[in-house]
Amino acid sequence: MRALQYEGTPWENAQNFKEQGNEMVKIKHWKDGQEFYSKALLILQKSRLDRQRQRPLQPEPEEESMKEVQLEEVCLVNRALCNLELSELKLHIWSSSLHSLTLQRELRSDYC
Fold it and tell me: Count of domains in the chain?
């Protein structure tokens, strides 16, 4: 299964991970979405570095480069959404826990 995820061009592989991330976001599985977007970004970064090593003095093909840059931008924004949702979830849990502790203290003082 894992080998199938990496068949094709780097752009196609990154696009596949982005789509999987989108599916996770639709069902609010923020951590999974974050991981898929991160995988897509790693593939795009590696692709860019590989091209720079192979052709250090030649300009990158504009069409190929632009497609990857656009996909990278989308993945960065989508991963930021996941990070925001995860941080808000942590804040909500922390706030709820604090509220629960406050209520417990009030209840103890009322009944003790």
Answer: 1
pLDDT score, position 80: 94
* Token reading at 51: 């091209």
Q: CB atoms < 10 A from the CB of 50, how many? A: 11
Q: Does some domain include residue 33? A: yes
| Strands annotated E in the chain | none
Longest CA span, the chain: 79
Residue 46 in domain: yes
Please count the CA atoms within 13 angstroms of the CA of 96 that sit on its side-chain side: 6
Percent of the chain at pLDDT above 90?
52
Q: What is the pTM of this model?
A: 0.75
Where in the sequence is the domain holding 44, given as residue range(s)? 2-80
Question: How large is the C-alpha radius of gyration of the chain?
Answer: 22
